[in-house]
Amino acid sequence: MSENKDHQGPASGNSVEGVKFVYDFTEGNKDLKDLLGGKGANLAEMTNLGLPVPPGFTITTEACKVYLESGEAPAALRDEVSAHLEALEQRMGKKLGQADDPLLVSVRSGAKFSMPGMMDTVLNIGLSDKSVKGLAQQAGDERFAWDSYRRLIQMFGKTVLGVDGDLFEDALDKAKEAKKVTVDTDLEAADLKKLVTTFKKIVKKETGRDFPQDPREQMDLAIRAVFDSWNGDRAKLYRRQERIPHDLGTAVNVCSMVFGNLGPDSGTGVAFTRDPASGHQGVYGDYLQNAQGEDVVAGIRNTVPLAELEKIDKKSYDELMSIMETLENHYKDLCDIEFTIERGKLWMLQTRVGKRTAAAAFRIATQLVDQGLIDESEALQRVTGAQLAQLMFPRFDENAKVEQVARGIAASPGAAVGKAVFDSYTAVKWSRSGEKVILVRRETNPDDLDGMIAAEGILTSRGGKTSHAAVVARGMGKTCVCGAEELEVDTKRRRMTVPGGHIVEEGDLISIDGSNGKVYLGEVPVVPSPVVEYFEGRMHPGADDADELVEAVHRMMAFADRKRRLRVRANADNAEDALRARRFGAQGIGLCRTEHMFLGDRRELVERLILADTEEEREESLKALLPLQKKDFVELFEAMDGLPVTIRLLDPPLHEFLPDITELSVRVALAESRQEPHENDLRLLQAVHRLHEQNPMLGLRGVRLGLVIPGLFTMQVRAIAEAAAERKNAKGDPRAEIMIPLVGTVQELEIVREEADKVIAEVEAATGTQLKLAIGTMIELPRAALTAGQIAEAAEFFSFGTNDLTQTVWGFSRDDVEASFFTAYLEKGIFGVSPFETIDKDGVGSLVKSAAEAGRRTRPDLKLGVCGEHGGDPESVHFFHEVGLDYVSCSPFRIPVARLEAGRAATQAEGSDHR
């Protein structure tokens, strides 16, 4: 924004009737964060508590929004700032920047949500060539005055005038070199005077103007700079990362200066009421003598532990400890505090609810319940599913020496180390020999499932968070890094080339971090997660540090399970995954993908079924598949006895069960050139050409496949029914639900349902067992959602397949778009987060909501669930609670996350109702 030549400050021609834009610290409170920002609201709260806060005032976020929208601050702002500045001057008994005894102020940003270091701050505003002498006389310390002045020019030049900060740092370093000292505190007044002159020359050269000597101009320009910093690159990047809305704006806090750089009896520090890393109570923080606040965070000088303050200044230390206890009891949470001591007088400059690690969050929440400061419902709001996920996955030792060679998409968290292998056969073979392997592929497909199961982790050079590799890996709790495009994977030569030309041969050790997408050469030591051992039943709450964390997680999960309304099921395709899911707290299976049962040895049977020319060939294939399917379902019903098991009938894109058309063409061509027999391959190639699809995901799959290939779905229904009857006759309690995939119209469902009901009746008659098999459908097409009222006439339940629903609503191919343009969309702010990661409430979410309402108008007892990837996403779980679904289903390792978030959603709803 251009400089205001008339020094009219933040005011301009924009008028907003009846809006108050400036609040004194005595006027606000901690509940006004939307208006005053977090810093301003908390300064007001501490003022109300009678704590020693330097007087000041806050310019609201509303003023910032007007400025950002129009390029001009509201017309009333200048007069309001003037009135509050005059009141501050009267209170302090001095005027801003006056020559003999100047009032100095700081101008600090303060958004609703903490964005540490992302926006701008300027200290010591009001100093000039004249007032610096008055400050020196008033303080009785010439060095302090000139040190404060050089700080102002340095911060103002960089923050407000846009001068390269390195120019000032270089000049400071040269001054120390000339003096032969290493720290700036060893520079004397004369040195600092020279440095001020140098700094002013830098400003003149870089900006074409002199450093402003008018103190009000300094303040007004600093206020504008803080407003502008809301849209700075680093602030926007931080907001995207933390999912902070871009339209909130920042408040500006104008606070009278207190000085920590007045000598050894002064200083500045930061403190925490508990350890933000562990959650343990104690004295945590840092202190720096003879310094201003920026020195602590900049790391220019070495701080001392906060406990040392007791020896340096016991009076201030004791007062600080008392204030910290007051603040923690008042905020009922870990508090992060900034303070300054000016010649033995303690001043509080900021407090906020402090950021913390995932482990600390769980410990602190339970500690505060035990102390009676919060109840269980509030404790649930202090932890998140994302934090729980961090605690569940193994991680690399942060202290290890590593050689990072690439970075991809963090697709499935965890830390995995193993020998690089480039095909599933080798992965299985080496794994059976006791080797730990990482399966490296350009991208995976269903044929790679055995290798993915055998591997410690999966690394691909293509694909995104919802690619085959990513989805399957998350389902298995397997570490996965996708889309590492820097890697050149050569599966034929069994090696990959990393940036710099280094070759990783098959058998070389590599390490991948699914939490951040990093790829390393060699072995990085792994630290196991005690939380997973707890969920697996291998660790029980105890007394040592790890068990203390497990105890906290255990208690929070118990709170969540008591509170939640949403049930949590698992996406599981075999008994092993089902049993793991049950240990993790699953209340059934919400999605069993039967196509995963047809891989490996069975694939040839399915291929023969699809390509069958005669009814006899088709019946022969179905007859061979039936007992295999029945065995699958018997094992599932045994693992999930007494709990619902939703089985989705076959839903693969057709090409996944057909030979690769290129490989088959080459085989036929070679056979012809060698004059070798190839009639079977030629017949196969002709059939594959006949069935080939340009877009298999929108082709012959799901219910369409069941309608086109007679007997396919009825074979699966018969296997389910016979397995249920066998389990029931063995005194078990099978609760099977049959789900028809990719339905777009009620007529499709009616035809399949009629055939299924007939088969179930036949099995009941043959076994003498009455079966209650619910039949429903997956809502994964926009048309299904839009006609949900009709479809509910033939469905006893809906399960929303939000992966495909997102794909079809947006018109995205999820295997392609994340790697091609999602990064650009995220950077440009089109997405706050990928719609495949968190449900798009406005688009996909509105279809889910309307379909749920329409379905229940037709069938009030319609059971509603979701089985897409969003079922384990924390934010999405809250949405599903709000729209009234009965359950979410997710991968086994996401079940604890979904349980926790379902409890949090219920307590949030309770809080809203009470308000």
Automatic annotation (TrEMBL):
Stored InterPro entries: ATP_grasp_subdomain_1, PEP-util_enz_mobile_dom, PEP_util_AS, PEP_util_C, Phosphohistidine_dom_sf, PPDK_AMP/ATP-bd, Pyruvate_phosphate_dikinase, Pyrv/PenolPyrv_kinase-like_dom
Start and end residues of each PEP-utilising enzyme mobile domain: 435-517
Enzyme type, top EC level: transferase
Swiss-Prot/TrEMBL keywords: ATP-binding, Kinase, Magnesium, Metal-binding, Nucleotide-binding, Pyruvate, Transferase
EC number(s) given by UniProt: 2.7.9.1
PANTHER family xrefs: PHOSPHOENOLPYRUVATE DIKINASE-RELATED, PYRUVATE, PHOSPHATE DIKINASE 1, CHLOROPLASTIC
The protein, known as: Pyruvate, phosphate dikinase
Residue ranges annotated for the Pyruvate phosphate dikinase AMP/ATP-binding domain, each copy included: 70-302, 308-362
Residue ranges of every copy of the PEP-utilising enzyme C-terminal domain listed in the record: 551-903
Required co-factors: Mg(2+)
GO MF entries: pyruvate, phosphate dikinase activity
Family: Belongs to the PEP-utilizing enzyme family.
Record's keyword annotation contains ATP-binding: yes
A Pfam family per the record: PEP-utilizers
Record Gene3D superfamilies: 1.20.80.30, ATP-grasp fold, A domain, ATP-grasp fold, B domain, Phosphoenolpyruvate-binding domains, Phosphohistidine domain, Pyruvate Phosphate Dikinase, domain 2
